[in-house]
UniProtKB/TrEMBL annotation:
Phylogenetic placement of the source organism: Eukaryota, Viridiplantae, Streptophyta, Embryophyta, Tracheophyta
Family membership noted in the UniProt record: Belongs to the glycosyltransferase group 1 family. Glycosyltransferase 4 subfamily.
Key word Membrane present: yes
UniProt-recorded Gene Ontology molecular function terms: digalactosyldiacylglycerol synthase activity
BP GO annotations: galactolipid biosynthetic process
EC identifiers of the protein: 2.4.1.241
Organism: Hibiscus trionum
Limits of the Glycosyl transferase family domain: 545-679
Official protein name in the record: Digalactosyldiacylglycerol synthase 1, chloroplastic
Reaction catalysed by this enzyme: a 1,2-diacyl-3-O-(beta-D-galactosyl)-sn-glycerol + UDP-alpha-D-galactose = a 1,2-diacyl-3-O-[alpha-D-galactosyl-(1->6)-beta-D-galactosyl]-sn-glycerol + UDP + H(+)
One cellular component (GO) term of this entry: chloroplast outer membrane
Keywords annotated in UniProt: Chloroplast, Glycosyltransferase, Membrane, Plastid, Plastid outer membrane, Transferase, Transit peptide
Localization: Plastid, Chloroplast outer membrane
């Protein structure tokens, strides 16, 4: 019985032990599941923290991007705010990078992962179990070993006796994460960055840390580099006369003003502009710096010794444009025809009153200049001839005034030289805008009021390559050297802006290159007629090649004869008709006859004459032209043009019917090509580019006439902080002072009759003579003006 009872007791004990271990295993599974859940929650919280850090970084970037357009603050202050945020952004990025690095995650998981030791004390449970198993030590040995193995793997410490739950570090971390998540979701953390109050505090702090010198009561005085830079920049035209290039002066100014580069970069970054710093920005900043210093002292520059600011006042609301040229119809030359069309198309807009001022020649000079010995007894008679000729070609009646100034014809220079002060023939009430056609020619011997003093804006248009003509004369190189510098002198002294028709002319001060000439509308109509005939299948061109031009050697006749003489055999059977009159006609014809060239010389005629419509090829080998009007007219009529690869023909290269050659062999190939093919019809765009409407638009743009007509010629400069600095009369301009000095020196030299004669002037052209007084109803000229320009 005892043995049976012992067996029953042992079985009961074993069952109890099994129940105990079962309870322990179940409790351990719950603890393990809870730990795993906590670890998953920790991973989730860590990922959430990383996302919040990334969101914070994005909020900082959005704040930087929206700083400039959101707040209307000066550019310098915006740059300071952006600089502050730029410094803050790397810190945030570094924080996010460090705490989201794989090493941090690995260390956390090593500390809190499933293989780590968790500090939970199970000693009390063990004591209770051991006390109950004193009698069954052998049977329970296996379970104890398993428990010890479990104990070695994980040491747990319960917060309350007999209960399992989250341990203290985890509870603290979870509480902090919940609070952080709650704040972030409610916008308490990042909402402040979007609040204007935060930005206002940043701006106020930046303002307190770094005050801008512009906002201070006293403007800082100019330092030595600024003074030297301003002196170098204003001395640019004078240094240009000495051979110092403009780009060298710009580099010197840029090096002296290098301290402004950082300000330009910050300002460009804030405004979203290019970070490049060019010389124009530095020059503008230097001008504004000088003007701000002068304005702070209350100084107002009212002009120098030879500068007069009492100019035309626009009282009637309409501007006045005066066009002064060196030739007039019926002399069919570029300086007579093109200014006439310019006046007509400027007056066509009816936005301004236009006056065309042309030379009046005495009867003896008219017989030398005008074709077929055509003469006029009065200016009114010649004016009627000019208006009739213009109306026949434009198709409309132009509303502009034609005035005359006295001139004399020079046989040696083959040009008309003004006599007396030409500027006095424009009334002071109309002295607003002046266009000088051939400014160097008009001012070589000009002895009178300075154009830029009398007019608000003076534009010079260079028509002729005088250096090329002079080089062909005796001692041409020496003469060209002096004429080059004289041209620089007079254009600087008497013009605000200079337009060069092509790069074939010399590089003059204040000049830009632009073709501001158009084609007579009559030639465009001829071209349209030719295109219609070709569409109908009719033969538009029944003749071969021709050349038209004033018969002087410099107009391309020398080049033409040399090319034909060199390739007479290559161009066997080629016949060329030549139209022209001129001083060298006899010599040109005798030379061609001596060389046995197949040239047919005919009298000169208008390029629009019916007898010239049937030619298919126009040949122009001239390299002395600036922009050949005959070439443009031939292209407008739909013909082929064979011309030299020269800067004077740059504008025409875009037309498919213009064939340019570089060598004499290439000339032969282009002539044969033109004779064998048919020219292409002009497109509407090409027709417009040749028209006077397009030429007038280019002229208004490149001469800055649009700004002048809109009263924007000298606008006030705007500082980065929004202040206006009017530059015009607040600061002395050394360049204007130098130009005024050059004009004064030129006035003194041209007043000496001996110096005038030594330099090639016509005797008696310092003042107009009695015959001019009679023809133009003028008073006798004064003996001498006591003061320059007044």
């Amino acid at each position: 019985m005892e043995k049976g009872s012992q067996t029953t007791t042992a079985a009961a004990t074993t069952a109890e032990n099994s129940s105990a271990f079962s309870f322990i295993s179940k409790g351990w599974r719950e603890v393990r599941d809870s730990a795993d859940a906590d670890l998953q929650l920790m991973k989730h919280r860590a990922n959430s923290f990383k996302n919040l850090a990334a969101s914070f970084d994005r909020e900082i970037e959005n704040l930087i991007q929206s700083a400039a357009p959101t707040f209307s603050v000066p550019a310098i202050r915006q740059s300071s705010e952006i600089d502050f945020m730029k410094k803050l952004q790397p810190k945030i990025s570094e924080f996010r990078r460090v705490y989201s690095a794989p090493e941090i995650s690995r260390k956390v998981m090593e500390k809190w992962g499933p293989r780590a030791k968790l500090g939970i004390d199970l000693s009390r449970i063990r004591s209770a179990i051991v006390a109950e198993l004193d009698e069954t030590e052998d049977e329970d040995m296996y379970g104890i070993m398993e428990f010890n193995k479990f104990r070695k793997g994980r040491r747990l410490r319960f917060t309350e006796e007999g209960q399992s739950g989250d341990w203290e570090p985890i509870q603290v971390l979870k509480t902090r994460l919940r609070e952080f998540e709650k704040k972030s979701s409610s916008g308490e953390i990042f909402g402040g960055f979007k609040n204007s109050e935060f930005v206002e505090k940043v701006k106020s702090s930046l303002k307190a840390i770094c005050k801008e010198p512009q906002e201070s009561k006293e403007v800082p005085p100019l330092d030595v580099p600024e003074l030297v830079a301003y002196l170098v920049r204003q001395s640019g035209p004078f240094l240009d006369q000495l051979g110092v290039r403009r780009d060298i002066c710009d580099k010197i100014v840029e090096s002296l003003c290098s301290k402004w580069k950082n300000q330009f970069v910050l300002r460009s970054l804030a405004e979203g502009e290019s970070l490049t710093v060019d010389s124009d920005k530095i020059n503008d900043e230097l001008d504004l710096r000088i003007a701000s210093v002068l304005q702070s002292t209350g100084h107002c520059y009212e002009g120098g010794f030879w500068t007069d600011f009492r100019k035309h006042d626009v009282s009637d609301g309409k501007r006045h444009v005066a066009i002064v040229t060196t030739a007039s119809l019926p002399w069919m030359t570029g300086t007579a025809v093109n200014p006439l069309f310019r006046a007509a198309y400027l007056a066509k807009s009816a936005k301004q009153n236009v006056t065309l001022l042309v030379p009046w020649l005495c009867r003896s000079d008219q017989e030398l200049v005008y074709p077929n010995r055509l003469t006029f007894s009065s200016p009114e008679e010649q004016e009627n001839y000019i208006r009739n000729w213009l109306e026949e070609r434009t198709g409309f009646k132009a509303d502009f005034r034609i005035s005359f100034y006295p001139g004399k014809f020079s046989k040696e220079r083959r040009s008309i030289i003004p006599a007396g002060d030409t500027s006095q023939f424009i009334p002071s009430k109309d002295a607003d805008i002046c266009i000088l056609e051939e400014p160097e020619h008009l001012n070589w011997y000009h002895h009178g009021k300075r154009w830029t003093d009398k007019f608000n804006h003076v534009v010079g248009i260079v028509h002729t390559n005088y250096l090329e003509y002079i080089k062909r004369e005796k001692n041409g190189a020496l003469q060209a050297f002096f004429v080059k510098h004289i041209n620089n002198w007079v254009t600087r002294a008497y013009c605000h802006k200079v337009l060069r028709l092509s790069a074939a002319t010399q590089d003059l001060p204040k000049s830009v290159i632009c073709n501001v000439h158009g084609v007579n509308p009559k030639f465009l109509k001829i071209g349209e007629k030719v295109a219609e005939e070709r569409e109908l299948g009719q033969q538009a061109f029944s003749k071969g090649a021709y050349f038209l031009g004033k018969m002087v050697w410099a107009k391309g006749y020398r080049e033409l004869i040399d090319l034909l003489a060199k390739h007479e055999n290559d161009l066997d059977g080629f016949k060329l008709d030549v139209y022209g009159n001129g001083e060298d006609a006899h010599e040109v014809q005798s030379t061609a006859k001596r060389l046995n060239l197949n040239l047919n010389f005919l009298k000169g005629r208008d390029h629009a004459d019916d007898s010239l419509h049937g030619y298919k090829v126009f040949i122009n080998p001239s390299v002395s032209d600036v922009l050949c009007t005959a070439t443009a007219e031939a292209l407008a009529m739909g013909k082929f043009v064979v011309c030299a690869d020269h800067p004077s023909n740059e504008f025409f290269r875009s037309f498919p019917n213009c064939l340019t050659y570089k060598t004499s062999e290439d000339f032969v190939a282009k002539v044969k090509e033109a004779l064998a093919k048919e020219p292409q019809p002009l497109t509407p765009e090409q027709i417009y580019n040749l028209s006077w409407e397009a030429a007038t638009q280019r002229f208004v743009q490149y001469s800055e006439l649009d700004h002048v007509l809109n009263n924007e010629h000298n606008p006030a400069k705007v500082r980065p902080n929004g202040k206006l600095i009017a530059k015009s009369l607040s600061m002395p301009n050394l360049s204007e002072m130098v130009d005024g000095g050059l004009a004064f020196a030129h006035y003194c030299l041209t007043g000496n009759e001996v110096l005038r004669l030594c330099t090639g002037a016509i005797p008696g052209t310092r003042d107009y003579d009695k015959q001019h007084c009679k023809d133009l109803h003028l008073l006798p000229p004064q003996v001498e003006n006591p003061i320059y320009g007044w």
